[in-house]
Amino acid sequence: MKLSERLQSIVNFVPHNSIVADIGTDHGYVPYKLIESRKSKQVIATDISKDSLNKTISAIRQDLLIGEEIITRVGNGLEPIKPFEVDTVIIAGMGGTLIADILSKDLKKADSFIDFILQPMVASTELRLFLNQNGFEIIDEDLVAEDGFIYEIIHAKRGLELIPDDIYFEIGRKLIQNKHPLLEEFIHRKINQAHSIISDLNKHCDSLKAQERKYNLEKKLAKYQEVLECL
User: Fold this and answer.
1) How many CB atoms are located within 10 Å of the residue 19 CB?
2) Which domain holds residue 152?
């Protein structure tokens, strides 16, 4: 099975010989690939919807992977996973706020897991802030361009991390340190978005709230430019 670049990046972050929980697995492509490639020993594929989980079962049953290698469970968030049952947790294809909510409901259980592969569709800034404030350390990140979007993939572990500048919540520090080849395009998209918002705010310049938002965006633009100069 050939995965999309986004899903392949998620698989790449999974440690070898791991036992994995794929939360909200949908079609089960990631569990399938992890077992097919022998990268993982076992995957627990979960979904809140029984119908969605049935898609996973039908997609992988033809290769007889259902059973000891891929286990399917219906449940919300980390609820179907027992403490210490897996070492790696994947939560992908959801909003960053939802991913943060899933982790926050089971922070004590999360202490029993080692690696967290997170792929927010939106609100990555909010997710990084949550991770930093709740005892997670980001050890690596990736960017993937697909279907006109640039997706962010975060690899975190339990731990403490000092963030010297708030810009690293919006643009992952590891992406900057590694000079990721897509980072310049990623930042330019943020710059264009900020300019667009400022243009709209200028139409309401008499509003104090609009002036404050514009000021904050202009500060961000200066930070974006600083990051670009580092690349």
Assistant:
1) 17
2) 5-169
